[in-house]
């Protein structure tokens, strides 16, 4: 999404200072939230212990995660996909406004139906926003997060 924002500026004419300001603002203002379908892959990667993963699976725990300074950080733990989806709704409502400059991306790991649900939620709650990107996660992220991972990210440009 940063590359697309830079390209928009290049198309209309820009300065190096404007690009530099955009990169800093993007780094500081980008929002990202995601969840995994199973804790198995987080345990395999050493992000959580095997006992915690086992207990979490029994209780249908879905961690709500984000990225800060390149690190995966937990935001919350909820039980079940419905509550995880509600956290996505709450994040969109509390961190964005319905405006034409809002740009969003949606990503999934072998979960196109969950991605479609997120897309519908975004279109319902933020009709003026642009969904710039809908993508499947690559093998590296998929290996760490596992199939069923879904999330979205946003930036007001």
Global outline: globular
Q: What's the tally of helices?
A: 7
| CA-based gyration radius | 17 Å
Give the low-pLDDT segments: none
Terminal-residue CA separation: 10 Å
Helix content: 40-55%
The biggest beta sheet reads:
6 strands, mixed
Secondary-structure element string: HHEHHEEHEHEHE
Class per helix and strand makeup: alpha+beta
Describe the strand arrangement of the main beta sheet, using strand numbers. 3-2-1-6-4-5
What is the percentage of strand-forming residues?
A: 25-35%
Could you tell me the mean pLDDT? 85
Number of strands: 6
Summarize the structure.
With 157 residues, the chain is of the alpha+beta class. The protein has helices at residues 2-12, 16-29, 40-44, 50-58, 81-95, 112-125, 139-145; strands at residues 31-35, 61-68, 71-79, 102-108, 130-136, 150-156.
